[in-house]
Amino acid sequence: MPPASTPPAPPRDLTRGPIASTLLVFALPILGGNVLQSLNGSINAVWIGHLLGPDALAAIANANNIMFLLLGAVFGVGMAATILVAQAVGRDDLAAARRVIGTSATTFLGASVLVALAGLPLARRVLEWMDTPAEALPHAAAYLQVIFLAVPFLYALAFLSAILRGAGDSRTPFLFLLLVVALDIVLVPLLLLGIGPLPAMGMAGAATANLIANALGVVAMLAWLRHRDHRLWIHRSERALYRPDWTIVRALLGKGLPMGLQMVMLSAAMIAMIAMVNRHGIVTAAAYGAALQLWTYVQMPAMAIGAACSTMAAQNVGAGQWARVSRVAGTGVAFNLLMTGVLIAALIVFDRHALALFLPAGGEILDTARHLNRIAIWSFLFFGVTFVLFGVVRSTGAVLPPLLILAATLWGVRVPFATWLQPVLGADAIWWSFPASAVCAMLLAIGYYRWGGWRGARLLASDEPAAVPAEVPSAPPGPLAGLCPAEVDRGAPRAHAR
């Protein structure tokens, strides 16, 4: 129990204050956490690429797509839990938030064990199905098998972070992620090379470092929550909250699975892309693996802003503050265009130096990486607009239309574009498929935001929806005009006004 002079901070109220500064302050720790994770992956890639060679770097690109798929599988349930907690906090109902946390924790634990048990025997077979180059396959299989053992800790850390963000706290997850990344950065070279008394484990050592760091991070975060007697901490006397509430379970699965399928579908499309890339040989595969390291950073601002918008919008949905919900969307899109645009421009200007961090200076691989990067990197500007708008609309529980939009643009545009045009454009068809699908997704997302029925959606079947605008007035011409709060929410009534 913490001393009386240092009581736990209450959940952050995102329903008050200026939109831009509140959103930015809340989003920055999320962005910092995303950058830390990407930096960690890049540092590991530098070690692996320079010490084990291009074959091992191609192995990381293949194995990380599977890892992203694993995290995507649980992403939706985590987002559903985050939104439920955020809506409860928005209407000042901490008892409901704790019920969500208890049921969600049980759901996450069960899912993580099932994924780990299923993945261990299938790791090498999945990599073979992806046409992983023979030179990279042993490295990738050794890495991925250990990663499956780490899944319960990866899921637990993601769950705890999501719950805290739903309550308005993005700073604490960032601090514990900083601990995890620091541990991983220290442990990777020790286990990779076998420094001191440690065995030289190669690629398996990099994965083992990840497992140890995440396990220690989970233990540390749980200890901190208990020590601070956090408002959302479930005490021993309240263990009944871990018994599944089937109304909440239905919401977590019914709303979470479509959101998770978005990430799974994105991961599956990336796996389809890398399978095509692999067929063009080790030079193209290594170049693509290096470009993926840069693209991970480029996506970070949009993903952080989208996650922040989702939480902020959900709290305001719970409070019935519909005008603020619309202003959150417009501000989020503006932040994405500015931050992502600046990052893309910088990585094009300095692409040779950035890509050389992962590849030998000069040579065919670096030239190939620069070529494909300049074609595909612009797609993440359009992706960012889509991600932010999806974050806002899912704050009410509208999850199926974003899934359908993603399915149509990934599997109806990106994969067919890359497949059918390769006989004409060669490998360039793969790179051009990224901006082609991203533009289509952005236009459909804008259309659904302006004219879709997402404002009337709800997460729990037993909930009455907050007062929703009876109709959305027609927006003036212009692709983003519908993001203007004066047009979307003019005269909207507010429930639970503060």
Automatic annotation (TrEMBL):
Q: Which InterPro entries does this entry report, sorted A to Z?
A: MATE_fam (IPR002528), MdtK-like (IPR048279), Membrane_Transporter-Flippase (IPR052031)
Q: Which UniProt keywords apply?
A: Cell membrane, Membrane, Transmembrane, Transmembrane helix, Transport
What's the superkingdom here? Bacteria
Where located? Cell inner membrane
Q: What is its main location?
A: membrane
* Family annotation (Pfam families): MatE
Q: Which residues cross the membrane?
A: 66-88, 100-120, 140-162, 174-195, 201-225, 259-277, 329-350, 375-392, 399-417, 429-449
Topological category with respect to the lipid bilayer: Multi-pass membrane protein
GO MF, one term, reads: antiporter activity
The terms describing its cellular component in GO are:
plasma membrane
Q: What is this protein called?
A: MATE family efflux transporter
Q: Which organism is it from?
A: Luteimonas deserti
Taxonomic lineage of the native organism? Bacteria, Pseudomonadati, Pseudomonadota, Gammaproteobacteria, Lysobacterales
